[in-house]
Fold:
Amino acid sequence: YWDILSRGALGWDERDGPVGPSAYNRIMMNCVGPYNANLVDIYGIHQGVRMKDVGHPDGKIFRLWITSSEYYLLEYRSNIGGNYYDRQIPKSGILIYHVDEKGSNVTEKEKLVDLECADGKFLDKGYPYGEIPDPLKGGDNLDFWAHDYTFTRNHYGNQGDATDVFDGVMFKSFGTETNPNSYSHKTNKPTGIEIFNIRQEGDEMVFDCYIPPIPDRTPD
Structure:
């Protein structure tokens, strides 16, 4: 339900019209600000990075590179902000997407775009029913929509819920030691990326971060 080009075309829980596009599809449509002017590559150590609702004229999407073809995207989605289409989303907060430009959404293992659900990955079932945390291969219950009804029922699958977002209250960090974690999906090795102290201040989300340099890409 998080994207107009997915189940969200029917509206959240299939009511009241479509939701807004995801961070990746905003980039593809050149509408992260005029001609993606608000798409920001971020490197190094930062404190107090501020994010407005992505639907706001000053709303930014941050891109954190892992390799020259793999990166994370961060966007702030709000149900009380400037984006009318997100008024029905269940909770406001930061969404973190993993993007592998060499991947494909045909399978669950090496997807082109994968939402890093804040509620974690579990070997047997998704949050809150899972019993065995597995940050690398556990799978998250958002993904189970693609299977048949029996599989979805047994794994408590869903098409998006309030625990997908890093809200700064229950879910405040994403890094090497969290579940899910910032390991590379391609190598299953740590990227060293740390996003922490996620919190809400007024109408903005704020975070601190450490983004290590990578050998095959340097800041423009």
